[in-house]
Every structure is written in structure tokens, then in C-alpha cells.
Design goal:
The protein is an alpha+beta fold. 38% of the residues lie in helices and 27% in strands. The chain contains three helices and six strands, in the order ααβββββαβ. Strands 5-4-3-2-1-6 form a six-stranded antiparallel β-sheet. Strand 3 and strand 4 (84-91) form a beta hairpin. Helix 1 (2-21) runs antiparallel to helix 2 (27-49). It starts with a helix and ends with a strand.
């Protein structure tokens, strides 16, 4: 969650410093500050709504299991911070979900997860270390 909020917090602090160091405030500065604070608020709300579950790659599709329900679909990386991934899970049946994954949850399997996420769909093969053994993300 920190990886999701930190960039917005830093942007907000930078905008605040910019506004405070200026002799006169302008509408551009006010808009930039409001935009950064709004982004921080939205990132915080998103982080609070993220569900905790288990993401698996079964060799052909991604499986997102949450609260006893298994959903099959595909994932698309929307943001990659090296230590965290924001994924869009596109379910075959029903609504999708946004998933925030952090390296600290399964550091030994992080690199193979990132390779599977970024690999073209036609070329991805079943990683032997992950088949049927998902980490709780």
C-alpha cells in the first residue's frame, strides 16, 4: 500500500513546497496543489478498497481467488514500480478488479511473477515453481 501512496504524497509535498516558497500564489499553483491532494486522496481510497486474495497462473489463464470464489481471466500491468505492481484483472465472467501486488508478500517468487505478467500471452509457459501454488497477494 505504501508503494501506491508514496508517489502521490511526494508530489503533494513538492507542490506544497513550491507554493510556500513563492512570493505570490497563482492559479496554476493552486490547481497543481489541488490535483496532487486529489490524487493522494484517490490513491488512499483505492488502497483501502483493494481486496486480499490469491493470484495464480495455471499455464493458460490467470485465476484470482478471493473469499472462496475463483475467477478466471487475464491480467494487464498498468503500473510497475519494480517493488510493486498495479494490475487490472479482466475476468471472463463478470466485473474485473484492480490488484496491487507487493514484492514483500512473496519476495522469492516476485521475479517469475513479473515475467509472467509482462510476457506475451501466446508465449507464456507454465512456470514450474508457480503451477498450482499461488502466493497470497
Amino acid at each position: 500500500m505504501a508503494g501506491l501512496l508514496l508517489p502521490w504524497l511526494l508530489a503533494g509535498l513538492s507542490c506544497t513546497a513550491w507554493v510556500l516558497q513563492s512570493d505570490s500564489r497563482s492559479a496554476v499553483q493552486d490547481l497543481a496543489l489541488l490535483g496532487c491532494l486529489g490524487g493522494l486522496w484517490m490513491a488512499y481510497r483505492l488502497a483501502r478498497r483493494l481486496d486480499e486474495g490469491q493470484l495464480d497462473w495455471d499455464g493458460q489463464s490467470w485465476v484470482w481467488e478471493i473469499q472462496g470464489q475463483r475467477r478466471i481471466g487475464e491480467v494487464r500491468a498498468r503500473l510497475d514500480w519494480q517493488q510493486g505492481l498495479l494490475l487490472e484483472f479482466l475476468a471472463q465472467d463478470g466485473p474485473g478488479a484492480w490488484l496491487w501486488l507487493e514484492r514483500s508478500r512473496a519476495p522469492l517468487r516476485w521475479d517469475e511473477l513479473r515475467r509472467a505478467v509482462h510476457a506475451p500471452a501466446a508465449r507464456v509457459s507454465t512456470p514450474s515453481a508457480t503451477a498450482g501454488q499461488g502466493a497470497a497477494w
